[in-house]
Amino acid sequence: MSSTGQDSTTTRHRRSRHNPQSPLHDSSVTSKRNTKKGAVPRSSPNLAEVKKKGKMKKLSQAVEDDLIIGFQELDVNPEAKIAVGTGLVFDEQLNEFHCLWDDSFPERPERLHAIKEQLMQEGLLDRCVSFQARFAEKEELMLVHSLEFIDLMETTQYMNEGELRVLADTYDSVYLHPNSYTCACLASGSVLRLVDAVLGAEIRNGMAIVRPPGHHAQHSLMDGYCMFNHVAVAARYAQKKHRIQRVLIVDWDVHHGQGTQFTFDQDPSVLYFSIHRYEQGRFWPHLKASNWSTTGFGQGQGYTINVPWNEVGMRDADYIAAFLHILLPVAFEFQPQLVLVAAGFDALQGDPKGEMAATPAGFAQLTHLLMGLAGGKLILSLEGGYNLHSLAEGVSASLHILLGDPCPMLESPGAPCPSAQASISCTLEALEPFWQILVRPAETPEEDSVEDGVQEIEEEGPWVPSVLPILTWPLAQARTGLVYDQRMMNHCNVWDSHHPETPQRILRIMRHLEELGLAGRCVTLPVRPATEAELLTCHSAEYVERLRATEKMKTRELHREGANFDSIYICPSTFTCAQLATGAVCCLVEAVLSGEVLNGVAVVRPPGHHAEQDAACGFCFFNSVAVAARHAQAISGRTMRILIVDWDIHHGNGTQHIFEDDPSVLYVSLHRFDRGTFFPMGDEGASSQVGRAAGTGFTVNVAWNGPRVGDAEYLAAWHRLVLPIAYEFNPELVLVSAGFDAARGDPLGGCQVSPEGYAHLTHLLMGLANGRIILVLEGGYNLTSISESMAACTHALLGDLPPQLPLLRPPQSGALASITETIQVHHRYWRSLRVTKVEDKEGLSSSKSVTKKVPQQANPGLAKGMTMPKEKVLEVDMRKATSALPAEESTDQTKPEAANVTLTPDQSSETATRRAALDKAPSEETVEEAPVHQATSEAATGAVVMHPTTSEEAEGGAELIQTPQASYTENQFPAASPVLGATALLSPSQLTGDPGTLELGGEALETLEPQALEEESLLGEAAGGQDVADLKLTQRFQDLAEINQGILYAVTPLPWCPHLVAVRPIPAASLDVTQPCEDCGTCQENWVCLSCYQVYCSRYINAHMVRHHEASGHPLVLSYVDLSTWCYPCQAYVHHQVGPGQTHPYPHTCIPFYPWGKGTQKPLAVSQRLVLSGAFGAGQEVGWLRAGVGVASWLW
C-alpha cells in the first residue's frame, strides 16, 4: 500500500490511501467483547509495520537543498565531545563605571554586587565553569554597529564630566563615564566568549552577568542605559564564525528591546521574541514598533514577535502562557541552533520600573522551557533589573536551572489574566500567516452560557504576593530511581509465543539502558509486591481474590478464565507478576516523595492502565499508576494534587474510570480513537468525556482520529492543551503512563513519535511538581522502539538535554482538529485555554498622548518627522493580499506623500524611513486615514518595496541574505519558507476553501475537498472508508506531479493465503466501480465480494460489506477505490502471482474493467497479469488487474 505522507490542507493536497482491513468486530456493536487488542496476522509478520524506507522518484531542487542542509547539520563524528557544565562570566571590572552626576541612577554597580553575594550564598559560583571576560574587538562590534558610532564611543574615555554629560543628553536615558566604553566592550566580549564555549562544546550553556545592558542599543545609537547590543553582536558573531544558520533571541526584559528588533527585522535567520510592558504605547520606549502588529519587514516578515503587556501586575502564568502558546510552537518550527536570552529581571515583583508580579520561580520555568531548544545551547545575558533583592533572586533561579536543578513549584500559577489572553491572541493572529504551526482550525461557535449543572470558574483578580516567595531547592541524594525485577518476565502466553505483550519487552529495555550506561547512572531501588490494602484502593476485593485464585488453576481453566475478559491471557504467574509490577511503582513513589530520588522510571509488566476496578482488560490486571497515585496521597497524609499523563496509544479506560469523580487527580490521555473504532472501542475516549460530579473537567481526552500521528502533533497538543492545563492545575506529583506504542514502527499504534520526541515530552513535563515525575511502562510492542524511547526519556530524567528534533512537518489538520475539539470542550473548566480571537484590536492598539524623548540632531542615526500607516495594514487577509502583489503593482496602487526623512551616511533611505516610522510616538501619527492595503515598507517615498520572493539590495548597498528556514517545506513551495510572506506557487484560494481548479504542469486538475485525508491503520480496524471526494479514480491521480517528487511508503502483502480457493469466476457482465451498495444504495467507497460479486459499502460508510462477510463467510473482497484485495480471515492484503507452468482455479480470459463506469473511458483489461506500474494519462492503459486477487496498491 502506498501513500505520499501526512495530511496538510494548508500546504498541499496529499494523496491518501485507504486501508480496507476491518476490525474483528462490527462497528455497530459498542461492547468490547470479542474485540482483541493487538490481533496481528501471524502468517506475515511484516504486515505489522509500515516500511520506513521511501522511494524517491524525482527530487526537485528544493528537496535537494533541504537534504543538503540536513546533512550539513548531522553530527557524524562518533568521538564528538558531549558538552557538560554551565559557563559563567563575571568580572569585577564591569563595576568600574557609574553615573557621575546622579548617585541614585538605577543602573549602578550595586546590581552586580547583589548578584554575586546571592550566588556565593547559594554555592552556585563553585558549581559553574568560570570563564575570563574578554574585550570585543572593533570588527566584532561592527557586525551590528557603525564604525562612526564605535569611534565616537571610544572618544568618551578622554572626555571630562561636562563633555560626557553633554553627549549623554543627546541620547535617551543614558549616562556616560570614562570607563563606559571599556566596560561595554568587556560586556559584549563576555557574551562572545560564552558563544565560543557553547558552540565549541566546552560547556552546554552559560550566563553572562554583565553591565551595562545592551538590548536597546541600535546601529548608531545609544539608548536606555545601553551602548553596545551584546546579544545582537553575539548572534552575528555566531553566524559569521561558527556558521550558525538560525538564532533565536528571547527578550524577557520588561522594556522592549527595540535595538535588537531593528537589527534583525529584515533577517529570516534570526527569530526575535520580546515580551514586555507596553500599555498601549504609554510605557518606555513608547514605540508603535513594540506592539503585536509589528512582525518584521521584507524577507524578515514573521520573524519579529512582540507580546505587549497592556497592564501592570503580570504574573508567572501570563509569561508561561505566552511561551507555551506562541514562543515554543514557533521555535520548534524554526529549529534554532543557538538560543540567546536578553535576560532582564525588571519584571519581577518589587522592581520599581517594571511594576510586574513575576517571581524567580517563574523565570526558572521560562529558562527550563528554553532548554529544550537548540540541543540545549542556551546563553543568558543580563539586561535590566533594578530591585537588588529581586534581581539577585531572579539570576540565581535561572542559574539553578542552567545547572540542571529541578524547577521550583509556582506559588500560585493560576491562568493568564484577560489582558494577557488578549495580547497573546492578537500576537497569534498577526503571526498566523507566517507560521504553519500557529494555523488553527475554525472553531465551532458556542453560546456564552455554560451547560446546565456546570459552574464556570470565576475569574480571579490580580494576585500580588506581599513579599517575594523564598525558593527552596530539593537536595535529593540521587536524581533518578529505577525499578525492575526480572521475575516479572514469568508472566507469558503459554498458548501463543508471538503475542505482542511478550516478556522480552522489559528485558530489551533494561539491556539497552545498561548498554548506554543509563542504568548505572540511576539508583536501582528494591521492589516488593503491592499489599492487598494498596490494591484495594483501586480494585474490588472480589476481583483481587478472583485473580489470586488463578495461581492454582490448570492450563485449561486459565484459558477459560482469560476468555472471560477482553484481550487477556493468564498463566499461573500472572497474579504474582501483576502484584510485583504495582508494588514496584509504589516503591518508586515512596522514594520520590521522601526525597531519596528526584524522579524515577519503572520498567514493569504487565501494563495496567486498561485495568478496571473489577475487571482485567487489554493485557492489564492491576492499574499500577492508579494504585501509585492513591498510595502517594495516603503516605502524604493529605489530598495531594496528582497529574496523570497517559501517552499510550490506547485510551486508559481503567484509569479514567477510577478517577472520573476525583478533582485531586487530573487525568490527561492522548490516544488513537478513530471515532470509537480503535481499542478499547466505544465513546469512553472521546473528547466529550470530562469526568463527573466533583471531577468534572479533570478528565481530558485528546482523541486522534487516524494513524501516523507524530512529534509535531504531540508537541502541538503539549503546547496548546496539556501544559496550559497542567500549569493551571499545579500538580505536586506527575505520573506518566508511558506506553510507547505510538512510537514509529510499533505494530499496533501505526504512529510516528520518535525517541527524541518522547524526550522532549518528558523534558517539558519536568517543569511541573518540583521535578517529581515518574514514568511507568505501559504498552509498546516493537522491541527496538520501546528500548530507544524509554532510553530517551531516561536521558531526560537524568538531566541530559533533549536532542534537537529533525525538521518537523506541519501537524496533520485532523490532529489539530482533535486538539481544538478538546480545547472547546474544556475551555469552560480551564481559563488557561481561553486564548481566542479578539475582535476589538483597535482598542488594544490605541494609546494616550505620549511624547518620546527626542535626541538632538547631532545624534547619529536619528530619523524624525516620519508617519506610519494604521495597524489595519497588518490584518491577516490584507497581508496575504499585499504579499502576493508584484512590487510594481503595489507601488502603483498606493502612492503616499513624501515624508521628511533625515539620512546619515551609513543609512539607506529604506532603513531611515522605517526607523522613523517605528520610532514615532503613537500620538504623533499624521496619516490616520492611510489605506488599509498600504504596505508598511511603502510608508514613504524612497522606501524600497521588495518582491516577497526575491532578495533585493536596499538603497545604500545593504544586501539582504535569506537563510533557509528549518521548517518542513514541500516541493511546490519556494525554498524560502512560506512564513516569509512569499508568493506561493499555489494561491491561498487553491490551497484552502472550496474545491476549485489546481493547475500543475499546465493541466487543470480538480482539487480535493479541503478535508484531512488520513491513511488508515495498517493493522487496525477493517474495510476503511473515505468521503465521496475520494471515490473517483480520476481524483486519485490528481496530485501526480507531487507524487513524482515525494516519498512513498509500502506495506508487504501476503504472497498467498488459504482462502484463494473461495474466489469464483468473474460474471460476464464485467465489474463496474459505479455500482452502488446493494443494501443502502450509497456510491461512497464500495467493495465487491470475490465469491458472489455482490457490492457493499465499507465499514466507515454503513459497514454492509463487513456484515456480508459475517453472514456469508466469503473471505476475499476487492476495493473499487484502489483495486486492492483484502482477506477478512487473514486480516491482510493478498497479492498472489501465478508462477510459470502453474494453473489457477479461475483461468479466465481478459474481460473489460471500467474504473470510471461504463461508457466513460477505455476499459482496463482484467487478466491473470499483475499491475506493475504505469503512467496515468488520457486514453492510456494503466496496467492489468489479476481477477479475484488484485494487488496491494498502485505502485507509482
Automatic annotation (TrEMBL):
The organism's superkingdom is given as Eukaryota
A single GO CC term, please? cell leading edge
Q: Which SUPFAM superfamilies match?
A: Arginase/deacetylase, RING/U-box
Q: Spell out the reaction equation it catalyses.
A: N(6)-acetyl-L-lysyl-[alpha-tubulin] + H2O = L-lysyl-[alpha-tubulin] + acetate; N(6)-acetyl-L-lysyl-[protein] + H2O = L-lysyl-[protein] + acetate
Pfam families linked: Hist_deacetyl, zf-UBP
Question: What are the recorded Gene Ontology BP terms?
Answer: actin filament organization; aggrephagy; aggresome assembly; axonal transport of mitochondrion; cellular response to hydrogen peroxide; cellular response to misfolded protein; cilium disassembly; collateral sprouting
Chain positions covered by the region annotation Disordered? 1-55, 840-864, 884-936
Protein's UniProt name:
Protein deacetylase HDAC6
- Which organism is the protein's source? Cavia porcellus (Guinea pig)
Question: Which gene is annotated as encoding this protein in its UniProt record?
Answer: HDAC6
